[in-house]
């Protein structure tokens, strides 16, 4: 029973760390956007934590882990269980850890709404995403649904959390259209630079710390000290991502762009999320490094395609989330996988294309589900609500004033250029 | 012994988390006040951590937990014990966890001094509060004093920490009088808005994370995985508070005011502090939700009464602290209470008015003691020191310059309106 | 095995806390410098975490702990070990905890480069420091090298981490020369005040929390609950440092300077790092208090000597790091030292001058090695690279623009005075 208690202690520590990631997102998202929207974005994250927790408590857990079918769970709504047998995780500990992943996915999804969506439309979408989008994908892969039956691996949520959130963000981005002033008539784009890189850097650091819980506590057990290995992989992948992205930006533009460096660290973290428990450290370095390179070009491609992604959620959580899931199919080592009971060997270790194929199917179906359902919901809302985007005047003045009635920084004189809505 | 070691590990983790709350307070208090006082408020929190720790080490612990009488403990000053028997908590771990609560109470009390008290007056009050106000109430309820004898429940400090701190803040607010420019001659009030909502939101997030330790580690044990349940209650109450406050503000004013939303989350956390270990999750949702509603109206009432409360300490920690303590009398479940050895059933479970009555007596006597002693101390100081408030000129220029000799943001041009002292 | 698992859990918690210190450094360093360099300084810390992790993984660990000689380790490069025997620490956990110390030392070293070094020169130095400076000193004291053989005590890295980092910072400061506008022709100096004291204060709070892991987890074991005692010493020393520095500044200048108060807390933390596990709490209070006094005068002396130290790394980590190491020679208690297996009694307890002498030899040789090798490297780089400092124009405009191509705060109008490069 002592070890079971330690497992509980470990997973609740992981819960704290993942919740701390929301603090990282407050800073990352506020820092990556403009002053006139800063209060909105920061306050929205606290609201997200609130509404996401309530929906998860009421129905989210039940849809994911309840008794149900290949598609969805359908029991155990409104948590009411407090017993602990001394075996495995206490119900409340497991419940809390899972809740945190739902909150992170929702926070990622918000990225697509930044700087132009009505608060009311985000509120409604937040409820629906937490109720019928995230739980379905989570059920498929983690809750005993059809992808779990086919051996889909997702150590800590590359697909379930990051890809699902990013696909919802993509749908929002497409329905909302680019921010005012982002693209010029000649097709070129303007840099609507985020207002505070200290926030952004500290946000990345908090996310990095939180990721130790995100990946490390996904072992669910302390039994063989394996969590240390998962954390080591996480660390070197993040480091490789930051270094790679900085040097790529430096080589391409002559300047070691700070936001790109920061996104490189996040890319390393997202990339290693699926394979953290299945690969060797040298492979983690390569996976992070490639993640850091990919994210730079992905950001450029989305910008070229005029898909306006203020917080880079599509590239960081989407593109790199896909890379991480596939990388697991390439690099997973048989003995590590079997060591924790549910892995299949990667391509380089004789796993052949079967495992890689399962990973691809998982990514495609999960991503499609999240995107299509999000898109339909938002299109319907757009009709019913008379638009999910604020008016031009409101966008120019900023969401702090239009949606919340007061500036986030009431004593800072707005920058003159800001008046043009750009 | 393994389990005792795990208990120690759990409580020291709780210690870290509660200390992290001071980081939350730095941001919450600095963000809720004006730029010209930001360095003062932030630096003061580090001083608070310092002086509070030293006073607790020297005499605070002894007054709370020493051998003494119904009113106060009177032994075990100047910690000097390093042994650990393998049973229960190691002395130093217990000491550190208790110290953190004293620091939080003092930080709450500071709220009433914000933006107008001399640094010297806060320094003196901080010593006296840490020496003779907080320890006495803590002794009454947690240290074997007279309220403990009567079965007063305070799981993690709704009364001891939040109400005591808030009552000291109330005394300070009354003695100091409102800030310049807060109330107009016609009786209306101005919004001296805090200067940075990103700080405030991140502050709330850090406080929320810290509260997992505040409430969770107040189990003092890992033995039955019960801490997970306490944390689940904490989470849903905080979430319900944030959501409730946001919608109430939205309904009342047409705008989803950010500071109100954030105070709603804190209200949920304060409300669940007393009953976190005694109620079911559905009750935690209701307790948090009502906390989120109450805090909005309490803020309005204090403002109507011209009691100027810059950081909303009176409403968040005071009014809602009372609600949380009483809610425990309403919702406490017998088996949970007995499960951790010291509870009495709530009104809805057959506890009758006895338990509710004990809670009320505890709130009234503790609150009165903290208020009256604080008020007397501050009035005496006001006479002896030739005023505990800075001069009008100093208040206009800000405490950063007047008390510390330099601006907190030396490169930011002060907002023109700021010159008027408003 | 349960206890071994708990030890692993404890040390990995310590790892998280020490990594969180990098968040503290982001805020401390950005807050202590000017707006035009804020993005550079914040982003650089994330790059530091990245490059430092990769170098440590590749060769740092091997140079410290590999099989080698009295000077350096020479095996176990590129971590590849995942097994855990159930005895002691899992290899990956130990590896991660040690990695964090290397990152902190590098971050301290950066202090000397602030606001004037080319990014490229910092990048190259970061690699060399992580490869051949830090690991050598760490091998001498912690990895079985010659100072370890002579009984050098360094509980958690006063010498290995803080002094080594500070000596590299000193070398950088001397080679780079003072910032433009720092010293006047008449020999007087200007205060190039840091731009955000809220950042600085929160940074100190995060560092303080992180130090609980830095010192506490340096017990490497939970076995006797001793970590609580180490944390208690850490807390009261930090508190005493903050209080002492504030009152000294107040007495000297009539104003309770905020940055000085904050540096006092850090001084208390640095001072107690060596003796945290060897002294009684009353001694910890004295050690922290003297640290808080020393740091104020050290800052003044460096300024008098025209050694420009923007982030006060030389005083906080250098001067006070030496004090802490020597204080251990004065106050270490025999039974505590023997309790954890490797201590010698301090001067006051009959250890005589032998132990104090060993401490002095360790400080002098380690400090000299770090300084001399850093100085040579930087001088060679200065020749080869055509200068390691940015041009005057670049320094005036700030490193955000010159090195990274964009301001850290693109919407904040630079302060007029800032134009003069001061």
TrEMBL record, chains A, B, C:
Annotated localization: Cell membrane; Membrane
Domain Ammonium transporter AmtB-like: 9-409
One Gene Ontology term, aspect cellular component: plasma membrane
Family: Belongs to the ammonia transporter channel (TC 1.A.11.2) family.
This protein's UniProt keywords: Ammonia transport, Membrane, Transmembrane, Transmembrane helix, Transport
InterPro entries noted in UniProt: Ammonium/urea_transptr (IPR029020), Ammonium_transpt (IPR001905), Ammonium_transpt_CS (IPR018047), NH4_transpt_AmtB-like_dom (IPR024041), RhesusRHD (IPR002229)
Topology with respect to the bilayer: Multi-pass membrane protein
A Pfam family hit: Ammonium_transp
Species assigned in the record: Salinibacillus xinjiangensis
Primary site of residence: membrane
GO terms, molecular function: ammonium channel activity
One Gene Ontology biological process: ammonium homeostasis
Entry protein name: Ammonium transporter
Transmembrane segments: 12-30, 42-64, 95-114, 121-143, 155-176, 197-214, 226-251, 258-276, 282-299, 311-333, 353-378
């Amino acid at each position: 029973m002592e070890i079971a208690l330690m497992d509980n202690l470990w997973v609740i520590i992981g819960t704290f760390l993942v919740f701390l990631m929301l603090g990282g997102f407050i800073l990352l998202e506020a820092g990556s956007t403009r002053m006139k929207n800063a209060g909105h974005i920061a306050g929205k994250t606290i609201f997200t934590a609130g509404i996401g927790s309530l929906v998860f408590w009421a129905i989210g857990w039940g849809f994911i882990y309840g008794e149900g079918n290949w598609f969805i769970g359908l029991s155990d709504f409104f948590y009411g269980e407090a017993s602990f047998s001394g075996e495995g995780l206490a119900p409340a500990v497991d419940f809390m850890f899972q809740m945190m992943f739902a909150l992170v996915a929702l926070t990622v999804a918000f990225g697509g709404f930044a700087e132009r969506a009505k608060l009311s439309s985000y509120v409604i979408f937040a409820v629906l995403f937490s109720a019928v989008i995230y739980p379905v994908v989570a059920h498929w892969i983690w809750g005993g649904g059809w992808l779990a039956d086919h051996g889909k691996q997702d150590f800590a949520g590359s697909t379930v959390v990051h890809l699902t959130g990013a696909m919802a963000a993509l749908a929002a981005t497409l329905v909302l259209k680019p921010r005012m002033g982002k693209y010029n008539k000649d097709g070129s784009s303007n840099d609507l630079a985020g207002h505070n890189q200290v926030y952004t850097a500290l946000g990345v650091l908090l996310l990095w710390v939180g990721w130790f819980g995100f990946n490390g506590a996904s072992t669910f057990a302390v039994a063989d000290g394996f969590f240390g290995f998962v954390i080591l992989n996480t660390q070197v992948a993040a480091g490789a991502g930051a270094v790679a992205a900085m040097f790529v930006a430096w080589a391409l533009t002559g300047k070691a762009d700070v936001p790109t460096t920061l996104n490189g660290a996040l890319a390393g973290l997202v990339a290693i999320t699926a394979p953290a428990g299945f690969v060797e450290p040298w492979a983690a370095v390569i996976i992070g490094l490639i993640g850091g390179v990919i994210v730079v070009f992905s950001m450029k491609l989305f910008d070229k395609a005029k898909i306006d992604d203020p917080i880079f959620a599509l590239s960081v959580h989407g593109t790199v989330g896909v890379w991480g899931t596939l990388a697991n199919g390439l690099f997973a080592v048989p003995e590590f996988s079997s060591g924790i009971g549910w892995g299949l060997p990667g391509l380089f270790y004789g796993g052949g294309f079967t495992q890689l194929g399962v990973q691809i199917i998982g990514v495609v179906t999960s991503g499609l589900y999240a995107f299509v359902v999000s898109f339909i919901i938002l299109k319907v809302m757009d009709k019913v609500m008379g638009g999910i985007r604020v008016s031009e005047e409101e966008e120019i003045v900023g969401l702090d004033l239009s949606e919340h009635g007061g500036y986030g920084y009431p004593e800072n004189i707005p920058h003159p250029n800001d008046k043009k809505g750009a």
